[in-house]
Amino acid sequence: MTATLTPPASVRAHRDPNVLRWLGAYASSMLGDNVYYLALSWAAVQAGTPAQAGLVMSASALPRAVLMLGGGVVADRLGPRRVVIGSDAVRCAAVLAVAALLFLTTPGLWPLALLACVFGTVDAVFMPAVGALPARITGKDQLARVQGLRGLAIRGASVVGAPLGGLGVALGGAPAAFALAGALIALSIPLLLSVRVRDLPAGTERGATAWADLKAGLRHVRRHRVLGPLMIAIALGDLGFVGPLNVGLTLLADHRGWGAAGMGWILAGFGTGAGAASLLLAARGRLPRAGLVTGCACAAGSVAVGALGFVPGLAAAVGTALLVGLLTGLSGALCGALLQTQADPAYLGRVTAVASLVSLGLTPLSMPFAAAATGAFGLGPVYAVSAAVCGLGGLVFLAVPALRRAELPG
Fold first, then answer.
1. pLDDT digits (tens, 9 = 90+) for 379-389
2. DSSP letter, residue 345
3. Which of 66, 173, 193, 301 could form a Cys-Cys staple with 327, CB 3.0–4.6 A?
């Protein structure tokens, strides 16, 4: 039996103890994830060839993509808090088991591949549940602010996680790093248990079967005047953005002679801009004419993405990357906030699953394409095409009246 929470509209998310407990749990879980990925890559490289290590690192992708829509149904049927707690418990147990196994023996790559598959499977239910939980812990007028806080937690975890994982490896090898990741994930569980959630409104319908729930969720997205076009905009924005930021940035730094240190500075510029966008949304809570602002930010961000492929100097590249992070970070955070506020809370797990699948399923295609196209045509044309695709996402916002006029409550 869950407690019912109806926070006053005047309680801002960053001052609400309930939201802060959730934020602490989410930050701890994300920090554990970052340490885990570093420990996994280190252990895989030590146990096998680089090609084998790459296969281990990608082993989570298939179960996550295949099971994602079903995970959204599970999150909505069982309740997001219960699913997140269960997911963190399974991930914690799996990581600590591998840590103990690596400490006692040298088992090779198979336990690492199995661990990656477990993480991918659990992620398929964890990610939709995480997306559905904010609407159950605070008022609708605070969801945009929560989205900003969530973005800050993600940026902070990515900045702190890598050196923390490296410290664990330095002190005790992969077993110590895995143990640290498990401890951080475990820390999220008592915090989540203390989070109070609101029940769904009386009369909320649930299908007779999970399959009926899945079809209802897809129908909700397809027929919604904002959510349907929003999924298309998210797909185009991510498809045009992921390639230049990942593979393209490595090739750009190598081609310009900036090296790993230069690439690090560019990534730092991007992270700073994206963090500033999350901070802006967390502080303001909402932006007027959110749909129009999102479309303009996405369109302007696409121009900055294209410009990144042509800048000659490192300083200019860092400044451009900061602008890319600010604009795409703002549009991405606003997309998340619109998704949170436009979807019916009873469908949020399934809606989040569709959005995650659109991003995770399509955007990885841009990375091999970006690498192959760069070899054939050079960096400039690839960045220009990527910018055009990303810009189409902004045009969807500006061309669809319901999306352009969408507002955030508050």
1. 778 788 888 98
2. G
3. 301
**DSSP character string of 158-216:** HHHHHHHHHHHHHHHHHHHHHHHHHHHHHHHHHHHHT---PPPPTT----SSHHHHHHH
In contact, 404 and 292? CB cutoff 8 Å:
yes
- What average pLDDT score do residues 305-316 get? 88
Count the neighbouring beta carbons within 10 Å of the beta carbon of residue 372.
12
At 23 the three-state DSSP class reads: helix
- SS3 (DSSP) at 79: coil
Residues 6+ apart with CB under 8 A from 48: 56, 108, 109
Q: Give the up-direction half-sphere exposure of residue 125: CA atoms within 13 A in the CB hemisphere.
A: 23
Q: Which of 231, 232, 239 is nearest to 386 (CA)?
A: 239
- The DSSP code for 347 is G
d(CA 103, CA 178): 10
Separation of CA 330 from chain center? 14
- Find the largest Cα–Cα distance for the chain: 62
Residue with tokens 């993600």: 154
Report which of 186, 87, 181 is spatially closest to residue 127, judged by C-alpha positions: 87
Alpha-carbon gap, residue 200 to 205, rounded angstroms: 10
What are the tokens at 40?
A: 């996994």
Give the separation between CA 291 and CA 284, rounded to whole angstroms. 16
pTM (2 d.p.): 0.88
> Residue 11: is its pLDDT beyond 90?
no
Return the amino acid letter for 10. S
> Tens digit of pLDDT for each residue in 102-121?
888 877 788 899 999 999 99
Residue 172, number of CB atoms within 10 A of its CB: 15
Give the amino acid at 72.
G
Angle at 189 between CA 183 and CA 192, to 5 degrees: 145
**230 to 184, 244, 262, 356: CA distances (angstroms):** 34, 22, 35, 12
Tell me which range, 93-107, 249-263, 355-369, is most confidently predicted by mean pLDDT. Answer: 93-107
Q: Tell me which amino acid residue 252 is.
A: L
Q: Is 269 exposed, middle or buried (0-12, 13-18, 19+ CB in 10 A)?
A: buried
**In this structure, are residues 102 and 174 in contact, taking their beta carbons and an 8 Å threshold?**
yes
Distance (Å, rounded) from C-alpha 94 to C-alpha 83?
16
User: What is the rounded distance in angstroms from the CA atom of residue 144 to the CA atom of residue 341?
Assistant: 8
Token pair 């990303």 is at which residue?
390
* SS3 at position 93: helix
